[in-house]
Amino acid sequence: MKPIISLLILVAAVPMFAVPGDSHWRAANDAELKALIPARAPVEKERIETEFRTASGVTDGRGKFIAGVLMITAGYSAEGKYSHFFTTQVAVKMGDFTLPAGEYVFGYQRVDDEALEVKFYRADNGTLLGSVKAHRESRRGPIRSFAISPPTGGAFSIQIGRFKIDCKVAG
Predict the structure, then answer these.
(1) Model confidence at 23, in pLDDT bands (50, 70, 90)?
(2) In whole numbers, what is the pLDDT of the chain averaged over residues?
């Protein structure tokens, strides 16, 4: 009888040691991304076409998403400043700043062979919110133009080609 009681106590205690809301994050499927990613992203006073085949995102399975997509900026005032549309329904910490739930755009410039400087802006008015370094990944394998990995232990990454931004779900 004692082993059964010990086992029940152990099973009941396991959730106390788990990171809250972490194990259920997964890659969003195409239907979820299509419902979330606009065909034309609202950027300042323009609506810029998105390239859905580059869309990537994750969901907590409870209605919260983090997602992004490449924008087709040729001919828009955003050309050269923004390249991607990014939306999050949870706060995201990267570098020394946190993006609250909302819609953003970002662009990047190569610093050197090992890093990009990625600048994030509010999508509705173009206000600069912060910048972060994306570091070159040394691993081999397929290269995606844009990818968001599901959070594990609260940490996840945004990948732009061979470069990666380390992020955390905040709060």
Answers:
(1) low
(2) 87
